[in-house]
Structure formats: structure tokens, C-alpha cells
Write a structure and sequence with these properties.
single chain, 263 residues, alpha+beta, N-terminal domain of MutM-like DNA repair proteins, Helicase, Ruva Protein, domain 3, 2 domains, four-stranded antiparallel β-sheet, 7 helices
Length: 263
């Protein structure tokens, strides 16, 4: 599932290819991923419209339309955007496509059909309905610390909670815990305040680094957990071994000994 940095990359691509260009037509090949309107209604609602901007909140990308409505692009596991002009470049699993007046096309490719597309008239109402919290990159340290108060669950579960931190996913949560030497099964409220502040700062650093690198994992630093995310690998202390277990319902990697339990 794409996490915040991946969706940020999708947003840049969307902005570069779709903004300020009138849609002369919209083609729907398969409307399964269009969730709240029919394929026919989707075509009627978007034909002749223009995207004037975009808004990202966590893992959700919204295209802003010239009538004030929004189009949710939630990519699921295999959703992708492909910009092209020649028929032979059409992606194999294109589900729908925006045809612009300049002859270019933006197709939405999704082999496994796990994406979710919604036409939204009232964005604030929709965000409240799905209980989506503030974007993890936009929260303040004060907000982060306040939300940790009294939480008896694991810090892994806290960081994954989309109603609190929109955009944090399994891989980035493990990375933040690893880099701050906090065991992901630690009780959230038992973590010292100084260490909580460190976790907030590291979360911002990790997310921004991934965005700056356009989420090319092989270019991440050698001291990132990404580089040895497998059972038996040695942590930076050259003593602790990386292990995995289910924490907060997710497969979690950590280095016992390197990462401290707070219970």
C-alpha cells in the first residue's frame, strides 16, 4: 500500500500532467474501482471540467476541480498514473482515462483493482465521515505529544492510527522506531517525553528524506532499517539481531537489544 511519500510522488506527477487542462472526454473501461457513482455518471461529471489543483492528506490524493468538487485518487496496492499521447502507450490495465484538449491522456492503471476512486462534493464532510486525521507531515510536535498522553496501546499501533497520523504506514513506522531505538511494542504513554520528541523529529526527517529521494529505496542511507529488513540481520551495534513478529496486527521488524522496551 502506498504510504505518504509515495502518494506525494503521485501528486507531483498528477500536478505536472493534469492541471489547468480541460478534459474533452473521459473514458471508463472498467468502473469497479469507482466507488460512489456509476461509470456513466463519472463520465458526465468530469467531461468538460478542469483540475485546478490537488490536495494530499496522508495516503489520500484529491484532485481539485474547477467547480469546487474533488476527485479522490486512492491508489491501493497497484494503482498508477500514466501520461501518454499515442494509443500504443496506453497501459495494459487502464481502468479509466482523462483525455485532454491538447491530445494528451492521463490514464489510471490498476492491475488488481484495489484502488478507490470517489467523486466528492463536500471534502470536509467526507474527511469527517472516514475519520481521517491530520497529515503526518503537517502536525506540530505539541499535537503529537498531546495525542500520546494516556495511550495504553503499543507505539506501533499509535503511529499507524490514521485518525491521528494520516499517512504513516508499516514500513515508515518500523523505520522511525528503529532509528530512535524504541521497541515498537512499547506502551505509548510510557515512552519518556524526551524520546517522544525524538520520535516526532525522526518521523518528519524520514518522511521528508523519502519525498526528496522520490521514494527510491535503494538510495536510502546505509543505517536505515530498509537495508537489513530481514530476520537475522545485524543492527548497527553489530550485536543485536533483527527479528520480526506481529505487533498491532502488522508484521513488524525490530532489533531486540538495540531497541528498548518501555512498559
Amino acid at each position: 500500500m502506498p504510504e505518504l511519500p509515495e502518494v506525494n510522488t503521485f501528486q507531483r506527477y498528477f500536478n505536472e500532467t493534469a492541471l489547468h487542462k480541460k478534459m474533452s472526454s473521459v473514458v471508463v473501461h472498467d468502473d469497479k474501482i469507482i466507488r460512489n457513482v456509476s461509470g456513466t455518471a463519472f463520465i458526465d461529471l468530469l467531461t468538460g471540467r478542469t483540475f485546478t489543483g490537488s490536495y494530499r492528506r496522508g495516503k489520500y490524493l484529491f484532485g481539485i476541480l474547477d467547480n469546487g468538487h474533488h476527485l479522490l485518487l486512492h491508489f491501493g496496492m497497484t494503482g498508477d498514473l500514466v501520461y501518454y499521447s499515442e494509443k500504443e502507450d496506453q497501459p495494459r490495465h487502464e481502468r479509466f482515462a482523462f483525455h485532454f484538449e491538447d491530445g494528451y491522456i492521463l490514464g489510471f492503471d490498476c492491475p488488481r483493482k484495489f484502488a478507490r476512486i470517489c467523486y466528492i462534493e463536500d471534502l470536509d464532510q467526507y474527511l469527517e465521515k472516514i475519520k481521517l486525521g491530520e497529515d503526518a507531515q503537517r502536525i506540530t510536535e505539541a499535537y503529537f505529544l498531546e495525542k500520546m498522553k494516556g495511550k495504553k496501546g503499543t507505539v506501533k499501533g499509535f503511529l499507524l492510527n490514521q485518525s491521528i497520523l494520516a499517512g504513516m504506514g508499516n514500513l515508515y513506522v518500523d523505520e522511525v522506531c528503529f532509528q530512535t531505538k524504541v521497541h515498537p511494542a512499547s506502551v505509548t504513554s510510557k515512552i519518556p517525553k524526551k524520546k517522544q520528541k525524538e520520535m516526532f523529529q525522526k518521523m518528519q526527517e524520514v518522511l521528508q528524506y523519502a519525498i526528496d529521494k522520490s521514494v527510491h529505496y535503494k538510495n536510502y542511507p546505509a543505517d536505515y532499517l530498509w537495508q537489513w529488513r530481514e530476520d537475522g540481520a545485524l543492527a548497527p551495534d553489530k550485536k543485536s539481531k533483527v527479528e520480526s513478529s506481529k505487533i498491532a496486527g502488522r508484521t513488524t521488524y525490530f532489533a531486540r537489544g538495540w531497541q528498548r522496551y518501555y512498559l
